[in-house]
Structure formats: structure tokens, C-alpha cells
Amino acid sequence: MEGLREIYTRLKKMIFFILAFYVIGWGFTPYQEVFLGLIIGTLFGIYNMWILVRRMEKFDRAVAEGSKVRSLGTALRFASGVAAVAIAILFAEHVHLVSTVIGLMVPYALLLTERIVYHVKHH
């Protein structure tokens, strides 16, 4: 099975293509607020994924060494999500709130889809 870092690297590449699509949508469609919300949400979502990968690697090392683990960074990821929503609320005339929340979930939806495809191909 692949390591978490390799999976994260592949997801990051996919997300950069998605972000490029969002930027094109922001620049060339009348739905700038929606695409800006998707951009902000997806950026915070990939940040949350990075935190999760980092904490999972730390967790794996701690288990291998037999030491205790504090947490997997749930509070930090939750705070990051709240910050994304706060930005959307603060700049409500420029950023669409619902698309920001959807953007937060994009990396996790991609992770789920990528893992399903991987297991269908390899099993």
C-alpha cells in the first residue's frame, strides 16, 4: 500500500488543477463570488489535509516508538474551517458562503474518490 505522503502529493497535484479551473471560472464567468468561495474553501481544505498528514505521520512514529500521542490536530483543522467560513462571512459581498463550505470538502471528496479508484484497479 502507498504511504500517506505519496497519496497527499498526488491529491495536491489534482487540487492544483482544480484550483486552476476555479481561477479560470473566477476570471471569465459572472459567478466570481461562487468561484472565489470555492478557491478559499479548497485552499483551507488542502491546508487541513496537510495538517492531517503531518499529524498522522507523527502518530505513526509515536506508535512505532511506543510513546503517547496527544492528538491528530482536530481542533486546529476545525479552527481552520471556522476561519474559512469567517472570511466568507466577513467578505460576503465578494465570497459565496456555501461554495466556501463545499470547497472545504473538495480535498476529502477527492481522497475518497482516489482511494476507491485505487482499490478497484488493484484488487
UniProtKB/TrEMBL annotation:
Localization, UniProt: Cell membrane
A matching Pfam family: ATP-synt_I
Topology with respect to the bilayer: Multi-pass membrane protein
One Gene Ontology CC term in the entry: plasma membrane
Stated name of the protein: ATP synthase subunit
Keyword Nucleotidyltransferase belongs to the record: no
Organism: Planococcus versutus
Coiled coil location: none
Primary localization: membrane
UniProt signal peptide: none
Transmembrane parts of this sequence: 12-28, 34-53, 74-92, 98-118
UniProt keyword list: Cell membrane, Membrane, Transmembrane, Transmembrane helix
